[in-house]
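Protocol step 6 of 9: fold each sequence in the batch and record its structure tokens directly after the sequence line. For illustration, a two-sequence batch is reproduced in full.

Sequence one:
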Amino acid sequence: MRSPRTGRFVLGLTIVAVPLVLALLGPVFAGEPGPRAASFTLGEGHWLGTDFVGRDVWGQVLHGGRPVVLTALAATALAYLVALPVGLISALTRFRWLEELLMRPLDVLLAVPSLLLILLAATVFSPGAVGLALLVALANVPDAARLVRAAAAEAAARPAVEALRMQGETWWRTAVGYVGRSMLRTLAADAGTRLTGVLYLVATAAFLGVGVAPDAADWAVMVDRNRTGLFVQPWAVVVPAVLIVALTTGTNLLFDAALDKGGRRGPRRTEKEARP
């Protein structure tokens, strides 16, 4: 009999597979764009109709997923690339001034809403896809670093860490070899939630025209530009919107199933077993 955990994993994989395949492989099979037709029409060789400027909606769907997915993945990876060393150093350092130097600027940044930060930056310069990924990553660094610091501080307070220090182990082995491994489940749970938030933030920024051209082939841009014809030709809005929701929902289900699987492998190792 299939367990609920396996069911969630299969369901999540099924849901996320469709938008992922379309995002990563869609441009390969899209081919050359055909001639434009009348705006917001159905039929005439366009099985999902045409968009607000007469382009084939299916072709736009095939081209529009890659920017959203790659930007979200890059922003999430960049956020952790900064948050992990900052959080670990802040939790394990014995110098109070270093901890304050690392964390207090992030507290100031944390007070600014993420979308407001992106919009303010967009008034100064026009970010492309790379700039949007950097801005979204910057907006996610403060709370990611605080979470890493909290999880690392809990692991650093264990007797095993003090034993490692007394044995003369290097900071790298203590921080990564023990503390880092101890907080893997916490980071995995946060990564699933954070990736979902990043996807929505990237889509919202693109919806507002930040980081993409007004007529770009992008799922979020499609939702924005075609909403005026929602009741005339709904597929130009419904299909990209459903794909974005499926991507975020499926990602959360996959992470939930993976964490549930990891949590049922047996009791955690004792401090003595964790020592090298």
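Sequence two, same batch, same settings:
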Amino acid sequence: MPGGAVGELLDAGRLPGPLAGSRLAFPAALTAAATGLLALLHRLAWTAGRGRIDTALSWDHYPTFYANGTVPVALALAGLAAGVLAGLLLRRAIAALAAAAVAVGALWAAVHSALPHLWPAATRVSSLREGARGDGIWVGQGVLTVDGDQVAAPCYTTIVPGCEASLSDVHAISFYRDFHPAAHYWPLQLVASAIVLAVAALLAYSAFRILRHRTP
């Protein structure tokens, strides 16, 4: 988030609403462009190394997942909007930047926690001998019983001594795993980004409401 944007908006209460809005448009465009370029460069580098570099991380590694998509751009815009709102409320640039950082951190944590549930998961059923299967972002897993119920698995491989007996005790007939495969990457990215952008829009709207209230 450009630090100067917060400082400029500290005096924006004395500006007409449209003029204050125009002063925010450039930092917003610059923030989106810079963050989007970094995400694009990271994705190009990651794509070039996939399958060729042994240490390349998989798409579902969370830092890689976020760095390769649109969520960072949405978070940057939310940070800008949060900084502007905090600047108008606190009237101190450093305090506003700190408040914006905390707000964006909380927003990211909430989105990260909700991420596996933002799109319908795929389910893979596998035999007790195979163990639970399904590569990607895990949502949940367990065993299916003879009655068709999904219950927590007492263990996940019959190689472990006693596991087969434990599975028999709960009448398990197969494992299941709910997960997001690679095909769900962009749906998850776009839904998460839309949520963050909605929060950013709400923060920006609140800031302009305050500006309008302060403008004679």
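Proceed to step 7 once all outputs are recorded. Observation for sequence two: The beta strands are 122-126, 137-145, 150-151, 172-180.
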